[in-house]
């Protein structure tokens, strides 16, 4: 007997339904993959454009800052200066911590070579002060300006340029 190759109508409908269901699942997967790809691409585009804008903004800031003032560099002079002086036969002490404000690190490093001489000049300046003058805010400010002038004078003499803009008191104790 010959075998019947024809499928029953129910089997034919089931295989057609499987094929259409498979096509639907495949179509949904492709659409989902396309949506994810578009989302990732758009995110990358917008974020990289923001990076380029931020990078160009920082370049503009750096170019604008180059001709003007450079950022401040602070160099602490450690250890703190401790000097003694006599006031009406009474021994007095002063402790001062200093920071130097400069703009060029290379020049500041060149000044560090002369640090023993700088510290000596500052100790001599501090020990020559009067206690009555130093207890007033005006006296402290005058001492700060004298210290700045001393440091600038030394830098001009040894390096040939004004390296330090200001000398700042970070700690000031009188006893």
Structural write-up:
With 175 residues, the protein is α+β, with helices and mostly antiparallel strands. It starts with 8 loop residues before the first helix and ends with a strand. It folds into 2 domains: 9-68; 73-174, Tetrahydropterin Synthase, Chain A. Helix 3 (115-127) packs antiparallel against helix 5. 59% of the residues lie in helices and 22% in strands. The chain has a 3-stranded antiparallel sheet. It is built from 5 helices and 3 strands; from the N terminus they run αββααααβ.
What is the gist of this entry?
InterPro entries: FliL. This protein has 175 residues and is of the alpha+beta class.
Sequence stretches where pLDDT stays below 50 over 5 or more residues: none
> Can you write the helix and strand succession as a string?
HEEHHHHE
- The tally of strands reads 3
Largest sheet: 3 strands, antiparallel
What portion of residues is helical? 55-70%
Radius of gyration: 39 Å
Tell me the strand percentage band: 15-25%
The rough form would be described as rod-shaped
- CATH fold-level assignment of the largest domain: Tetrahydropterin Synthase, Chain A
Secondary-structure topology with pairs:
Blueprint (H helix, E strand, L loop, with lengths): L8 H57 L7 E15 L2 E13 L2 H8 L2 H13 L3 H4 L2 H22 L5 E11 L1
Antiparallel strand pairs: 1-2, 2-3
Main location: membrane
InterPro entries: FliL
Subcellular location: Cell inner membrane; Cell membrane
Structure characteristics:
175 residues; alpha+beta; Tetrahydropterin Synthase, Chain A; 2 domains; 3-stranded antiparallel β-sheet; 5 helices; 3 strands; Flagellar protein FliL; cell projection
């Amino acid at each position: 007997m010959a075998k019947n190759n024809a499928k029953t109508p129910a089997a034919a409908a089931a295989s057609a339904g499987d094929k259409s269901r498979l096509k639907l699942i495949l179509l949904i997967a492709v659409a989902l993959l396309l949506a994810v790809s578009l989302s990732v691409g758009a995110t990358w585009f917008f974020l990289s454009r923001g990076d380029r804008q931020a990078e160009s903004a920082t370049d503009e800031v750096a170019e604008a800052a180059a001709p003007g003032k450079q950022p401040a560099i602070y160099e602490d002079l450690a250890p703190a200066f401790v000097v003694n002086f006599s006031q009406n036969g009474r021994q007095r002490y002063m402790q001062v911590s200093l920071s130097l404000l400069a703009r060029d690190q290379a020049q500041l490093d060149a000044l560090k070579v002369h640090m023993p001489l700088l510290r000596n000049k500052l100790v001599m300046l501090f020990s020559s002060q009067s206690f009555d003058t130093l207890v007033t805010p005006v006296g402290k400010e005058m001492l700060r300006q004298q210290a700045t002038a001393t440091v600038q004078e030394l830098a001009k003499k040894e390096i040939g340029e004004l390296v330090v803009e200001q000398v700042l008191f970070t700690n000031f104790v009188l006893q």
